[in-house]
Write a structure and sequence with these properties.
alpha/beta; FAD/NAD(P)-binding domain; Enolase-like, domain 1; seven-stranded mixed β-sheet; 13 helices
Length: about 450
């Protein structure tokens, strides 16, 4: 008689956990998944999906304005936040039910409740113990807010999706994806938006030209960017909040949102009890097969704090299911992962920044183009687009591609495939462009800017 209830028990029904559970079950494993919140994890519920829906909504203010240049006459458009949130919630509920059906159809048992490790092969949920040959931790991350006076008055990116009303003014604190994206979203919805970041320029780790270019474009749209500063404390003054900054100045606002990073969700899992190794950021340390220092326990996704992107968690979950239950060993490749920041305008990027390429290669060529897209010749909008190619001069390999402009993510996805295939600059040059498009600029840049 099998001493285990399951071959695999997953804690956390986010992207990585659900994918691993479904695939393992398809390979014949007995699988259960424990979740105490919502199916789909951060991405579906308080991340990528609802954020993209709000992003679409926020763009209409610009689109309505731009339409005047194309002969359209519009009555003053009206926006209803409550209606948007209601429709967003309906879509998230639909996706939650889709995830439930996917698990049911795959034969994965869903255990509703908070999973806690008891020992190397046992998980407790709602007081009941479940034995599993292998355990996968896929609990993701959680917003991190610094401990400052007045912290109780702020919200995180989780709560912004459920605001009953939009504020007239907001301060967003942070310099990563979430802070930059919500600055564009809320500004587009008519909120007076100030973005504070303690560093000299946001989006650390991105190409420097991209960071500078986006800052200029965001300022054009009326977003107030305050770099090199932070909040010391927050006080409630009547119905408003007063933020005292590190330079001694103060700002009055209706709402303060912190988007200062996410921490791996490793608390209250029993990790310390078992002695699972964590790094300095409390992320679970794993080997190349996503195995912790306890051989029967694995971890994937944001809880390991490697590359915190939904498609990466999916890829890690797929690898693990194949590795454990189908004798496949095709590791996830972390080089040249395309990514997009849904800022306004968007950032799309794949490969090395110019600074990283100069460190890695003896000589590089850099091709750059900044221009007004064709649409804005009539719209009157002064938004510009930036495109940048970085090439290893010795091999002619394209090692970095960066874009700031509308639909950057859609364009960079295809270029990511080309880079995975080892595309050279000569291949770009020989490719016939689609005219008239913004994307054709990537195959028409002939003279290096360096």
């Amino acid at each position: 008689m099998n001493k285990f209830d399951y071959d695999l028990l997953v804690i956390g029904a986010g992207s990585g956990g659900v994918r691993a559970a479904r695939m393992a079950s398809d390979f014949g494993a007995r699988v259960a998944i424990a979740e105490d919140r919502y199916l789909g994890g951060t991405c579906v519920n308080v991340g990528c999906v609802p954020k993209k829906l709000l992003f679409y909504a926020s763009h209409f203010s610009e689109d309505f304005e731009n339409a005047k240049g194309f002969g359209w006459t519009l009555d003053p458009p009206r926006f209803n936040w409550q209606s948007l949130i209601k429709d967003k919630n309906k879509e998230i509920e639909r996706l939650n039910s889709v995830y439930r059906k996917l698990l049911d159809n795959a034969g994965v048992e869903l255990i509703n409740g908070h999973g806690t490790l008891v020992d190397a092969n046992t998980v407790a949920v709602n007081g009941k113990h479940y034995a599993a040959e292998r355990i996968l931790i896929a609990t993701g991350g959680w917003p991190s807010i610094p401990d400052i006076p007045g912290k109780e008055h702020v919200i995180s990116s989780n709560e912004v999706f459920f605001l009953e009303t939009l504020p007239e003014k907001i301060i967003i604190v942070g310099g990563g994806y979430i802070a930059v994206e919500f600055a564009g979203i809320l500004n587009g919805l008519g909120v007076e938006t100030t973005l504070l970041y303690r560093g000299p320029l946001f989006l650390r780790g991105f190409d420097q030209d991209v960071r500078k270019f986006l800052a200029e474009e965001m300022r054009k749209k009326g977003i107030k960017l305050k770099f090199g500063t932070n909040i010391e404390c927050i006080d409630k003054i009547d119905r408003q909040l007063r933020a005292t900054l590190t330079d001694g100045s103060t700002l009055l606002t209706d709402l303060i949102m912190y988007a200062t990073g996410r921490k791996p969700k490793t608390e209250e899992l029993g990790i310390e009890l078992l002695g699972i190794t964590l790094d300095k950021n409390t992320a679970i340390v794993v080997n190349d097969q996503y195995q912790t220092n306890i051989p029967s326990i694995y971890a994937v996704g944001d809880v390991t704090n490697r590359v915190n992107l939904t498609p990466v968690a999916l890829a890690e979950g797929m690898f693990l299911a194949r590795f454990l239950f189908n004798n496949e060993d095709s590791p996830v490749e972390y080089e040249n992962i395309p990514t997009c920041v849904f800022s306004q305008p968007n950032i799309g990027t794949v490969g090395l920044t110019e600074a990283a390429a100069r460190e890695k290669y003896k000589q590089i060529d850099v091709y750059k183009s900044s221009f007004t897209p064709m649409k804005h010749t009539l719209s009157g909008d002064d938004e510009k687009t930036l495109m940048k190619l970085i090439v290893d001069k010795e091999t002619d390999r394209v090692v970095g591609v960066h874009m700031v402009g509308p639909e950057a993510g859609e364009i960079i996805q295809g270029i990511g495939i080309a880079m995975k295939a080892g595309a050279r600059k000569a291949d770009f040059d020989k490719t016939i462009g689609i005219h008239p498009t913004t994307a054709e600029e990537f195959v028409t840049m002939r003279e290096p800017a360096n």
